[in-house]
From TrEMBL:
Keyword terms of this UniProt record: Acetylation, ATP-binding, Cell cycle, Chromosome, DNA damage, DNA repair, Nucleotide-binding, Nucleus, Phosphoprotein
Stretches for region Disordered: 346-420
Domain of life: Eukaryota
NCBIfam families to which the protein is assigned, alphabetical: mutl
Name used for this protein in its record: DNA mismatch repair protein MLH1
UniProt record similarity statement: Belongs to the DNA mismatch repair MutL/HexB family.
InterPro entries in alphabetical order: DNA_mismatch_repair_CS (IPR014762), DNA_mismatch_S5_2-like (IPR013507), HATPase_C_sf (IPR036890), Mlh1_C (IPR032189), MutL/Mlh/PMS (IPR002099), MutL/Mlh/Pms-like (IPR038973), Ribosomal_Su5_D2-typ_SF (IPR020568), Ribsml_uS5_D2-typ_fold_subgr (IPR014721)
GO MF terms held by the record: ATP binding; ATP hydrolysis activity; ATP-dependent DNA damage sensor activity; mismatched DNA binding
Biased composition (Basic and acidic residues): 354-389
SUPFAM superfamilies, sorted: ATPase domain of HSP90 chaperone/DNA topoisomerase II/histidine kinase, Ribosomal protein S5 domain 2-like
Length: 666
C-alpha cells in the first residue's frame, strides 16, 4: 500500500525537526545565509507554543513565497555535484517544509527593493491564500506556533518547557560565539529582560564572557593551526589549567556548521586529563576549516554530523595543537594564599626612613587625605524611625475577604528545634545551583545597601557606597522567595485562610482572565477547571508535607506557606497561581517538579507591577512591605544570580564621583 503524501511528509518532518531547538537551528542558519547582522529570537514554553525568529537579511522575494515551504526547493545548489563545493548552511530545502507539516508557520519578509513587506501563512507546505502586503523592515520574520500540534506522541515525549528553553538557549549561545559579527538576542515572550544578548561586530572572547561568564573568558588560550597537506586549519579558544567545569563544554564548528565529533572530544579530553583534577573538564571552542571537497555534509537529517576524509589524521593534528598550547601552562597557574590570619595585629618594622616620616605633632603617622567626592554620604546601618512606629499584622484582612492566621509553631513557623533536615537530591542540587550562580559583586551591593525609596510597585532605589541604583523589585522579590522556598523546603509555617476556597472556583476565575490565554479551541472552561482541580488534589499529600498547602476532601484550599515574617501576598493573584500550578509544573519528574513549583510560588508571592493600592493606614501595603520586609530579607539572604548583572534588574543611574565632577564646574 502506498502511503498518503501527508503521512510521508510528517514522517520526514519528524526526522528533520526533532524538537524546538532543531527547528531554531535550521532557521538561524537560513538567517546567516541571508547575510543577517542582527537576529532576534522570541520563544514561549520552550518554543512549543511560539518560536519566532527575525533577521535583517536580504529577505525573500514575493515571487518565491508560493514555493518557499515546498520540499526540495532551494536556491543554494542546482545539481548533485554542487555538494562538493557547498559553502552555505542549507542546501536540501527541507527545513521550512518540515516545520510547516508539524506547526502553524507564518512568514513576513521584505527585500531591499520592495516597497512593503509580504506576509503568508502555511499549512503542510502550502500557502493559505496569496501573500498580503503589510508594514515591515527589511529582512524576514518567521513565526512557528503550536509545534507538533498534530503529532501528539512527539509532543508528549518532549521534556518540560524549561528544559526545551535551555536547549534553545544552548543553540543560540553556540552560534553567537561562532558568529561574533552577528548580534543575537534571545528572550521569552512577555518578559522585559533577555536571556542572551550579544552586540554585532564583537569578538569571540567578548561573547564567551557575556554568555558563559568572565571566569572562563579570562582563562582562554587562543588556538591556531593548519596543515596544507591535509587541507585543513583550526582556530578557536580553549581553557587553560586554571579553569574546569563538571561537564565538558565543547563548541565545534566544521566549515561553520555546528556539529558533534565524539572522536575529537575524547582525544582532547585525554590531553586535559594530565592537567585537570579527576572528573573536571575544559571549555573548548574550535572552528575547523576543511576543503569542501573532502567533507560530506549530507549524512544526517539535522546535519549535526558530517563525515570528512583523513578524519583520524586531522583529529591527531588538533590533539597535538591543543597539547602544544597547554604545554607548560602549570607555570602560569594562579594560587591564592592568606598572608595574615584574621584578627592578627600588624607590627610594621621601624626603620630610619619611617621614623623620619612622622610629623612634628606628637609623632602620629600621616593619614591619607580623603577628598570630598570620595566620601560616602550614608551608612548601611542607618535606620528610619518609622520602622519602629508601625508594623503590619498578618491577622488583618487582605482586602479580598481572605483572612490569615499565623501558625501556632511560632513567629516564622520554622523553629530550629522542630526543623526537618531535607536530604532530597533534587533540593540539594537546586540549592547548589543557586549558590554556584551567585554574583559576588551584586551580593556585596545588596548586603551593604541603603534603601532610598520606592519608585512604584515594580521599581525601587537603593544606594551602595557612592552609587545609586534603580532596582527591579519584582525580579528581586521573586528570586528571594524562590531561594526561601529552597532553603526552608519542608519547614514552612502556614497562612490559614479563614474561609477555605474551592480549587474549582479559583480555576474558573483564572480561565476567565485574559492573562490565561484561553481560546475556544482549548475546550469548555468547566472541563479545564475540573481537570486542574483534580490534578492538584491528586498531589495534596505532597503539597501539605513539603509546602504547607493543605487541601481538604471537598477540594478547598485551606492554607498557604508562610515564607516571610509579617508578609502576606496579594491574593488577587491566587487564581492565576492555581492555573499555573496545574499547567506549568512537570509533576512526573522530581527535580523539575520542585523547581517549577518553587518558581511559580515565588511569582505569586513576589511584589508585582499591578500590586493593589495601599491600605489607608499604610499597613500591609506594598510600599511598607517593600521597604521593611522584602529588602531587609534580601540584605540577609538573597544570592543574586549572574544574569541580574546583565539585564535591567540592577541599573546604575548616578555615581557620586561623576556628579561631583559635573557640579564642581558650575
Amino acid at each position: 500500500m502506498e502511503l498518503d503524501e501527508t503521512v510521508v511528509n510528517r514522517i520526514a518532518a519528524g526526522e528533520v525537526v526533532q524538537r524546538p531547538a532543531n527547528a531554531l537551528k535550521e532557521m538561524i542558519e537560513n538567517c546567516l545565509d541571508a547575510k543577517a547582522t542582527q537576529i532576534q529570537i522570541t520563544v514561549k514554553q520552550g518554543g512549543l507554543k511560539v518560536l519566532q525568529i527575525q533577521d535583517n537579511g536580504t529577505g525573500i522575494r514575493k515571487g518565491d513565497l508560493d514555493i518557499v515551504c515546498e520540499r526540495f526547493t532551494t536556491s543554494k545548489l542546482r545539481e548533485f555535484g554542487d555538494l562538493a563545493s557547498i559553502n552555505t548552511y542549507g542546501f536540501r530545502g527541507e527545513a521550512l517544509a518540515s516545520i510547516s507539516h508539524v506547526a502553524h508557520l507564518t512568514i513576513t519578509t521584505r527585500t531591499c527593493d520592495s516597497v512593503c513587506a509580504w506576509k503568508t501563512s502555511y499549512v503542510d507546505s502550502k500557502p493559505v491564500g496569496p501573500p498580503k502586503p503589510c508594514a515591515g523592515n527589511q529582512g524576514t520574520q518567521i513565526t512557528v506556533e503550536d509545534l507538533f500540534y498534530n503529532v501528539a506522541t512527539r509532543r508528549k515525549a518532549l521534556k518540560s518547557a524549561a528544559e526545551e528553553h535551555a536547549k534553545v538557549a544552548e543553540v543560540v549561545s553556540r552560534y553567537a560565539v561562532h558568529n561574533s559579527r552577528v548580534g543575537f538576542t534571545l528572550k521569552k515572550q512577555g518578559d522585559n529582560g533577555t536571556d542572551i544578548r550579544t552586540p554585532p561586530n564583537s569578538s569571540v572572547v567578548d561573547n564567551v564572557r557575556t554568555i558563559y561568564g568572565p571566569s572562563v573568558a579570562r582563562e582562554l588560550l587562543a588556538l591556531s593551526s593548519e596543515d596544507p597537506k591535509l587541507k585543513f586549519s583550526v582556530n578557536g579558544c580553549i581553557s587553560n589549567a586554571n579553569y574546569s567545569v563538571k561537564k565538558c563544554i565543547f563548541l565545534l564548528f566544521i566549515n561553520h556548521r555546528l556539529v558533534e565529533s565524539t572522536a575529537l572530544r575524547k582525544a582532547i579530553e585525554t590531553v586535559y586529563a594530565s592537567y585537570l583534577p579527576k572528573n573536571s573538564h575544559p571549555f573548548l571552542y574550535l572552528s575547523l576549516e576543511i576543503d569542501p571537497k573532502n567533507v560530506d555534509v549530507n549524512v544526517h537529517p539535522t546535519k549535526h554530523e558530517v563525515h570528512f576524509l583523513h578524519e583520524d589524521a586531522i583529529v591527531e593534528k588538533v590533539q597535538q595543537a591543543v597539547e602544544l598550547k597547554l604545554l607548560g601552562c602549570n607555570t602560569s597557574r594562579t594560587f591564592y594564599t592568606q598572608a595574615l590570619l584574621p584578627g592578627a595585629n600588624t607590627v610594621p618594622a621601624v626603620s630610619e626612613k619611617s621614623s623620619s616620616d612622622k610629623d612634628d605633632g606628637g609623632g602620629a603617622e600621616k593619614k591619607e587625605k580623603v577628598y570630598a567626592h570620595q566620601m560616602i554620604r550614608t551608612d548601611s546601618r542607618d535606620q528610619k524611625l518609622d520602622k519602629f512606629l508601625t508594623k503590619p499584622s498578618v491577622n488583618k484582612s487582605t482586602g479580598d475577604d481572605e483572612d490569615f492566621e499565623e501558625d501556632e509553631k511560632g513567629n516564622s513557623g520554622t523553629e530550629e528545634q522542630n526543623r526537618r533536615e531535607i536530604k532530597l537530591t533534587s533540593i540539594v542540587t537546586l540549592r547548589a545551583q543557586t549558590e554556584a550562580n551567585c554574583h559576588a559583586g551584586l551580593r556585596e551591593s545588596i548586603k551593604n545597601m541603603t534603601f532610598v525609596g520606592c519608585v512604584n510597585a515594580e521599581y525601587a532605589l537603593i544606594q551602595h557606597l557612592n552609587k545609586l541604583y534603580l532596582t527591579n523589585t519584582t525580579s528581586l522579590s521573586e528570586e528571594l522567595f524562590y531561594q526561601i522556598l529552597l532553603n526552608d523546603f519542608g519547614n514552612f509555617g502556614i497562612l490559614k485562610l479563614s474561609s477555605p476556597t474551592s480549587l474549582y472556583d479559583l480555576a474558573m476565575l483564572a480561565v476567565d482572565q485574559e492573562e490565561s490565554g484561553w481560546t475556544e479551541g482549548d475546550g469548555p472552561k468547566e472541563d479545564l477547571a475540573t481537570y486542574m482541580s483534580d490534578l492538584i488534589q491528586s498531589h495534596k499529600e505532597m503539597l501539605d508535607d513539603y509546602f504547607s498547602i493543605q487541601i481538604d476532601d471537598k477540594g478547598n484550599i485551606c492554607t498557604l506557606p508562610y515564607l516571610l515574617d509579617d508578609y502576606v501576598p496579594a491574593m488577587e493573584g491566587l487564581p492565576m497561581y492555581i492555573l499555573r500550578m496545574a499547567t506549568e509544573v512537570e509533576w512526573n519528574n522530581e527535580l523539575e517538579c520542585f523547581q517549577a513549583f518553587c518558581r511559580e510560588t515565588a511569582k505569586f508571592f513576589a511584589i508585582h507591577r499591578n500590586q493593589a493600592t495601599e491600605e489607608k493606614d499604610g499597613e500591609n501595603g506594598w510600599r511598607w512591605s517593600t521597604e521593611h520586609l522584602v529588602y531587609p530579607a534580601m540584605r540577609k539572604t538573597l544570592q543574586p544570580p549572574q544574569h541580574f548583572a546583565q539585564d535591567t534588574t540592577f541599573l546604575q543611574i548616578a555615581n557620586l564621583t561623576e556628579l561631583y565632577r559635573v557640579f564642581e564646574r558650575c
